[in-house]
Amino acid sequence: MKRPGLRLGVVAALLYGFLYAPLAAVVVASFNAARFGAEWRGFTLEWYRTLGGDAQAWVATRCTLEVALASTLVATVLGTLLGYGLERGRFPGRDACHWLLQIPVFLPDIVLAVALLLFYAAAEQLMGGPERGRLTMILAHVTFEIPFVAIVVRARLLGIDPALEEAARDLGADEWRTFRWVTLPLLRPGILAGAMLAFTLSLDDFVVSFFTNGPGATTLPILIYSSVKRGVTPEINALSTLVVLASLAGTLGAAWLQRKRRPG
After folding, report:
1. 198-227 burial, b for 16+ CB within 10 Å, e for fewer?
2. CB-side exposure of 190: number of CA atoms within 13 Å?
3. Would you kindly state where each structural domain of the chain is located, as residue ranges?
4. Distance (Å) of CA 83 to CA 150, 151, 188, 263
5. pTM to 2 decimal places
6. Pair 258, 189: CB distance under 8 Å
7. What class has domain 52-259?
8. Gap between the Cα atoms of 134 and 36, Å rounded
9. Model confidence pLDDT, tens digit, residues 69-106
């Protein structure tokens, strides 16, 4: 009985090693005193101190956070309304809408990026704007974040007993009060999880941002890409490590919120 468990443990260890070894190499390299080569020359925080004084990195960080916060706010509101409507609403074509919601999730990023680029180019030509920049990047991020928020919110709604809402209506509460005082508190962890997931996706995104950005709208992934073309430096390893940690924190936070106070 122990051998199958041991074998599964070895396979799992090899699999996780295959997945996370490259990330671990970047993290270790960011603390390596050697500027060139992979030889370990000792532990140092010099590359993080250098990165802290890099004005270009600070500008990219600010742009990244502004895009992520703005797109997350809009996507969370719209995604929550969409998820609630698909789960609690009854209307013709509801199943088709649910199916269409899955398409952006599985659609390759490059396809979505090219489609958005063509759309913005046509809008700029036919309607006079907006020019590509921070606004178009925010709108693009909202586009791919909404389905993820809606799916998380809808999954949370599936675990909420409709009898609780029916009881509130039986006691005289109208539809808005039922949603405000019964549904929303139960749904709040799912909304927060969807928002955190959307924020993490925005921080990580490169392809869509690269195709829809403009002058003065450089995010951290774009900065890393442009810097790597000139060669990988310890500062890039440090910046990549910070992005990985931020993404990990967002992912773990979303997972924790989804498990928090499960209904029933």
Report:
1. bbbbbbbbebbbbbbbeeebbbbbbbbeeb
2. 25
3. 52-259
4. 4, 6, 13, 17
5. 0.82
6. yes
7. mainly alpha
8. 35
9. 999 999 999 999 999 888 887 778 878 888 888 888 88
